[in-house]
Amino acid sequence: METVIKVGLIGYGVAAKVMHAPFLATLPQFKVTTVLERSREESKQLFPDAKIVRDIDAMLQEDIDMVVITTPNDTHVPYTAAALGAGKHVVVEKPFTITSDDALGLIATARNSGKVLSVYQNRRYVSDYLTIREITDQQLLGEIHTYEAHYDRYRPEAKPNAWREENIPGSGVFFDLSPHIVDQALCLFGLPKALYADIRCQRPHARVDDFFELHLDYGFNKVILKGGMLVREPGPRYMIHGREGSFIKYGEDPQEALLKQGAMPVGDNWGQEPEEHFGLLHTAVNGEVIKKKYPSKKGHYGNYYVDLYNTIVNGAPLQVKPEQSYNNIRIIELAFESNRLKQPVPCTGLFDM
């Protein structure tokens, strides 16, 4: 009989309801047995047999193998440390921590505990990234000289009661959105030599950053990562140019929108982009010029949990390592320093993965 991992879900806000619960409910390798909700019992709709607890101490006294931490950024360190200390495997939402020192501390705690610690970098499991990974692995563009990725939204007004829009550590668009596209860039290209960042407030009411432009210097290759809240009409989400050709990609992986509508991640077509969202590949292969729609690979956030299961139960290598997520936080810190100095800074203090 296949081992089933008993899960404690910490928090039941949007991140838990949309990004985690649907996959934990549909993957047979996991069973959510306990949920931490401060005052409600909303999780009973999806997990009717789960026990509701009201605080972290009560959660860690339960018979569970793993916790999934979806609470605000300032809880990530104490909750992760407590769970590891209680002998639980830990999944924590991005961003990993607010400071790189805190990330290093949790990595050390995980090593000492012998338990698995991983950050939910679900944007490694989306259609566009997987397709770009295939194109770069096959070197269809030749040596890449420019890679540009966007994570734009249009939200001119403040979101009511949103802690991410308060002027507190770990809030703002840069902490919220950049971990996705920074992680993708580091996975594709490795560690940059230097970076330059422009992080600012564009909306009149903004109390914390709502726009960023981050340049990562790889020598020949230049990576440009941008995000903002005042982009009503988005351009290409990805633009990649190499010595031989280009790949231009509009549209967003369909999973998040479907999950927000209440869809469950089941069926063979889950994560499949519509053909109209396929990217344009314009390149030369063996002397022949090709200009065509390139079929998107199918994404599935749930494969993060499948990979994690294989690590915990079968001893497979961990796919999303905490050291990689530390690098993400370190890049964020260096970007804020670059923005303060208004000049490029070297990328120091990173794990070479």
Please specify the SSE layout and strand pairing.
Layout: E1 5-10, H1 14-26, E2 30-36, E3 51-53, H2 56-60, E4 66-69, H3 76-85, E5 89-93, H4 100-113, E6 117-120, H5 127-137, E7 144-152, H6 173-189, E8 194-200, E9 211-218, E10 221-228, E11 238-242, E12 246-249, H7 255-260, E13 279-285, E14 288-294, H8 302-314, H9 322-341, E15 345-346
Parallel strand pairs: 1-2, 1-4, 2-3, 4-5, 5-6, 7-10
Antiparallel strand pairs: 7-11, 8-9, 8-15, 9-10, 11-12, 12-13, 13-14
Helix pairs in contact: 3-4, 4-9, 6-9
Q: Report the CATH superfamily of the largest domain.
A: Dihydrodipicolinate Reductase, domain 2
Number of helices: 9
Query: What is the strand arrangement across the widest sheet?
Result: 14-13-12-11-7-10-9-8-15
Low-confidence stretches: none
Count every beta strand, where a strand is a DSSP E run of 2 or more residues: 15
What is the rounded distance between the termini? 35 Å
Total domain count: 2
Helical content, roughly? 25-40%
Task: Report the mean per-residue pLDDT as an integer.
Answer: 97
* Beta-strand residue fraction: 15-25%
CATH topology value of the largest domain:
Dihydrodipicolinate Reductase, domain 2
Q: What is the name of the CATH class of the largest domain? A: Alpha Beta
What is the H/E order?
A: EHEEHEHEHEHEHEEEEEHEEHHE
Q: What is the gyration radius calculated from CA atoms? A: 20 Å
The CATH architecture assignment of the largest domain turns out to be: 2-Layer Sandwich
**What shape does the CA trace take?**
globular
